[in-house]
Design brief:
The complex is a heterodimer of chains A (340) and B (332). With 340 residues, chain A is α/β, with parallel strands linked by helices. Chain A contains 13 helices and 14 strands. In chain A, α4 packs parallel to α5 and α10 crosses α11. Chain B has 332 residues and is of the alpha/beta class. Helices cover 42% and strands 11% of the residues of chain B. The chains are: A alpha/beta (340), B alpha/beta (332). Chain B: It comes from Novosphingobium panipatense.
């Protein structure tokens, strides 16, 4: 009896990919709250339930007044979501791909993000933008960009990029009930790789990072599908006797400074890895903050890996070169470990 | 040719007087605003709507408090017509903490949900897509509320117009798209920037009724707005109203009007809708000159009171920079 009480509680899990996890979160949220709405191109079942099926089944269950397919009109989608949100609803608007947010930037940046502030708190815009992106499928320069830095730079909108299906579900449940606009970036592979998800996975708070692997020699901060690449590199580094701590940032804005600073202070070395461009990317903000806060406590300058300064290329060979690969991470970790 | 309205609703005497009350409230408020700017008592970009009073006044008598408007930076006349109280309006223009938006929006961005002023945007065209969202919410709520999206002739050339009108029509939203066509998009003449002679013709492309209205004639605006609002409340969908008018004070306060001819402006000002409607009310025996003068005096007192109230209000504290970014205050 006494030994049993010392064992970790058994969490019942189910294998699920990100797509299924988001679908489960939307189902749960719409069931629990009649104010939750879903809109976007092709999202109702009549149109196939979404370009990759994330919203499949929702319109059949909740009707096409709450789950509305729209014309290919991103400004109109965002405008309808903003107005409905201000009128008391909680719309989840799908902008099929992150590159398509560019044609709705006025609605997102000038309106969704700013109306609470500009109205002195009278307006609130509790909407969620779902958007898919990521290189690796040869879709080239207009279907695969990571623009999270743009939105993180805009005051008034939260930016979330989950990795695991469990986080997808938990972060979606939080975002839908958040009183402010949230953009959730679904990055390619994260939708399709099955992982364990607790059967009763509830909401996970926004703005909290997750220490995925504890370690002592160096901290890697990453998020989204780049986490798969990081984990491959970490496997190799662990085999080589390097103890890496891996922090999955999960929310890009507002980001969990406390968790990143604590980890960087502990290991003394930090490497930020993201798929977004390295120039002015989220890694720049993280590196600057860590160096301001931990100057003198770091054993090496903060390292940053990200995409080169060019559009996402088409040719597989170029696309592979464009994306950060495990050997680059391994090499960068070794370089940082050799300093100091 | 614009479409022709079959059954023209006519406002009764009390409603006509109410339209006039709103028009003179807009005109007096505008005049006092320009005075205060000239005297250096307020510093703010100001886009006068002098000359356009008739449009929102004849529409607003048909709206309830819970009917909504989404308007634009040249929109204070739309708010005054919707009976926004003048004290918080002036406090906002003056950048004071007692303003509708705590001094964080200013004259181009007033919001006042109590009177249905939901969004005032500084971006040309952006009132329309957002109005659709309020329309969708009305359908979901099962109410008869309508939303009016105000915009200018220049905004009919921006993509948001096309996307919003198309979606509103496909979804049969209770939205009335009101184009206040004052003949100029900033400094560009209508015909140099717009490919079609009447904006109302564009409604054909969206499968909704489109009317060109004399925006300086309260009875014409009223009749068409009545039809559009009835259609929206009946669940039949949106309407595009093009109300032709003229702006007397140019694009922005300080505008020298170099891009328009003196004769054109003089002719437009001769057709000022205010004195014309005042004379009509007197001629039709709806009000006497004394009654209308008394109304003006009362409104001037209201505006003066609002100005003095606003000037006595505090400026917002710097802590406001951390408030209303998100629901939760950002820590110092």
């Amino acid at each position: 009896m006494s030994t049993e009480t010392l064992e970790a509680p058994v969490v019942e899990t189910v294998k699920m990919n990100g797509l299924q996890a988001i679908n489960a979160a939307l189902m749960e949220a719409m069931e629990a709250d009649p104010k939750v709405l879903v809109l976007g191109e092709d999202i109702a079942d009549n149109e196939g339930g979404g370009v990759v099926g994330v919203t499949r089944g929702l319109s059949t269950r909740f009707g096409t007044m709450r789950v509305r397919s729209t014309p290919i009109s991103e400004q109109a989608i965002m405008g309808a979501a903003i107005g409905a949100a201000m009128a008391g609803y909680k719309p989840v608007a799908e902008i099929m791909l992150m590159n398509f947010t560019t044609v709705a930037m006025d609605m997102i940046v000038n309106h969704a993000a700013k109306l609470r502030f500009m109205s002195g708190g009278q307006s609130q815009v509790p909407l969620v933008i779902r958007t898919l992106t990521g290189a690796g499928n040869q879709t080239a320069g207009q279907h695969a960009d990571f623009y999270e830095a743009w939105f993180a730079h805009t005051a008034g909108i939260k930016v979330v990029i989950p990795w695991t299906p469990a986080d997808m579900k938990g972060l979606y449940l939080s975002a839908i009930q958040d009183p402010d606009p949230v953009i959730i970036v679904e990055s390619g592979k994260t939708l399709f790789v099955p992982m364990d998800v607790p059967v009763d996975q509830g909401a996970i708070p926004l703005g909290k990072a997750n220490v995925v692997v504890p370690g002592t020699d160096l901290t890697i901060v990453s998020y989204g599908q780049m986490m798969f690449t990081v984990m491959q590199a970490v496997e190799e580094l662990t085999a080589a006797g390097v103890s890496v701590e891996v922090v999955d940032l999960r929310t890009i804005s507002p980001w969990d400074k406390q968790a990143v600073l604590a980890s960087a202070e502990k290991t003394g070395r930090l490497l930020v890895v993201h798929e977004a461009g390295r120039n002015f990317g989220p890694g720049a903000e993280i590196a600057a903050t860590v160096q301001e806060e931990l100057f003198g406590k770091l054993k090496a300058p903060v390292g940053r890996l990200g995409a080169p300064y060019c559009a996402v290329p088409f040719a597989k060979k170029l696309e592979d070169a464009y994306l950060v690969q495990p050997p680059e991470i391994v090499a960068e970790v070794k370089r940082l470990l050799a300093i100091g | 040719m614009s479409q022709t309205l079959e059954n023209r609703a006519k406002p009764d005497a009390a409603t006509q007087l109410d339209i006039y009350r709103r028009m003179i409230r807009i005109e007096r408020n505008d005049d006092f605003t320009r005075q205060q700017i000239r005297r250096g008592r307020i510093t703010a970009p100001y886009y006068s709507a002098r000359g356009q009073e008739c449009i929102p006044s004849a529409i607003s008598v048909l709206l309830n408090d819970d009917d909504k408007i989404c308007t634009i930076y040249r929109g204070i006349h739309d708010m005054v017509a919707k009976d926004m109280p003048l004290r918080p309006l002036w406090a906002e223009i003056c950048g004071r903490v007692d303003g509708t938006c705590k001094g964080k929006g200013g004259p181009m961005h007033l919001t006042h949900p109590e009177t249905g002023v939901m969004v005032t945007t500084g971006i040309v065209g952006s009132s329309m897509p957002i109005a659709n969202g309020f329309g969708w919410a009305s359908l979901l709520d099962g109410t008869k509320q309508v939303t009016v999206a105000y915009f200018g002739d220049g905004a009919s050339n921006i993509g948001a117009f096309h996307e919003a009108l198309n979606l509103a029509s496909v979804w049969k939203l209770p939205v009335i798209f009101v184009c206040q066509n004052n003949g100029f998009a900033e400094h560009t003449r209508y015909e140099n920037g717009t490919a079609v002679d009447l904006i109302s013709k564009r409604a054909i492309g969206y499968g909704m009724p489109g009317y060109t209205v004399d925006g300086n004639d309260p009875l014409d605006v009223y009749a068409h707005a009545h039809a559009a609002i009835e259609r929206a409340r009946a669940g039949e969908g949106p309407t595009l109203l093009e109300c032709k008018t003229f702006r007397f004070m140019g694009h922005v306060f300080g505008d020298n009007d170099a891009y328009m001819s003196k004769e054109e402006k003089a002719a437009a000002m001769d057709a000022d809708p205010l004195p014309r409607f005042r004379q009509k009310l007197i001629d039709d025996g709806i009000a006497t000159a004394e009654q209308l003068d008394e109304l003006t005096t009362r409104i001037e007192a209201e505006v003066t009171d609002a100005i003095e109230f606003a000037m006595a209000c505090e400026y917002p504290s710097d802590d406001e920079l951390r408030r209303d970014v998100f629901a939760e205050e950002i820590p110092a």
